[in-house]
């Protein structure tokens, strides 16, 4: 989705952002007509309230948006986005009342409130348009919003139209838009080029498995993003029950997230060498599907005992991470809708991540706070390493017992990165119910925070 932000103009409708405690002082400076209208419509400055006030000709003279209290604001984010759908058609500019450090976030939230997934069914557009403050970097805002919208579109598209070839096509379109280079290894060529786990997971599907490899930039630090691209996950021979299969179109949420982040990086012309690796597969059921108790040999040479074919994401990521690590980039980041255990631990709103690098942790968490893009650090807990060692092979893809499922998955992935700094994100990629700027459906997680802290992470 491409955005075109309107430049600030004198005829934009002034929008006053009013916290509950600020309303009385603001009203004291207004005329009787305004005070009477505010009282008549019951506007109190409550979070999410919106009120448009007309002039003598019946046009909109100004609009008020409630900013609530500090306590009410702490229970959510993108507060202006919650009020935007309640305002009549027009272009609005923030005229005051919003803290400077929230100006970018709230403007971005308003832009994201205009997102509609209308590929299959047309939806009503957001009528109230925001005009970004002149102090904001409009190109950065556009890149952040477009990157997030790309991620949402990819996740929301059903597997019938977003299989491995379609995900590859989306990557080609992104590469073309930014003059990036792209190579794809597909089908039996995966075996010829030593990517056996990707091949094993995807070989039972009608649409061939593949590794998508995109590169951009020729100077600066090297950043490699690896995204899980399981376009649909039946669970394989360890078939999921129907209820667990309902959202499996989103099992390529890691791939969608890294492509959205890649757009942000390339659109903002960040001075680094970017590589994006996406193992794109379907985990299907057929006579040639990989089986429980199979032992597979990975690109890195580590053997893996398959104790559950529904723990396939870590397998395809393992080969991609081993390939990424061979170039020894300055930073590798993997993103994946990997485990239900992560959802049980922190719910759908937080993005759990793993890193043992104090500089990475500090930079990310500071950026996450600034960007209203929450994350939560999880431990690479070394005492759990024996849980992923079955004895008959080097690694177990699905340790029995059910304990620490997200941690053991992260420990498994870390075995395939030995020469580079590494961080892993076990995201959900789905908004379960409507929230301001985040309609029910696919959603990006941690990507804006990562984009914000890249300069600090990579010493740019």
From TrEMBL:
Q: Name one Pfam family in it.
A: Peptidase_M17
Which UniProt key words apply to this protein? Aminopeptidase, Hydrolase, Manganese, Protease
| PANTHER family reported in the protein's UniProt record | LEUCINE AMINOPEPTIDASE-RELATED, PEPTIDASE B
- Say if the entry is tagged with keyword Aminoacyl-tRNA synthetase: no
Regarding protein family, the annotation reads:
Belongs to the peptidase M17 family.
Question: What InterPro entries does the record point to?
Answer: Leucine_aapep/pepB (IPR011356), Macro_dom-like (IPR043472), Peptidase_M17_C (IPR000819), Peptidase_M17_N_1 (IPR048816)
Q: What is this protein called?
A: Leucyl aminopeptidase family protein
Residue ranges constituting the Cytosol aminopeptidase domain according to the UniProt record: 308-315
Question: What is the organism field in this record?
Answer: Sulfitobacter aestuarii
Alphabetically, the GO molecular function entries are: aminopeptidase activity
Report whether RNA-binding shows up as a keyword of the record: no
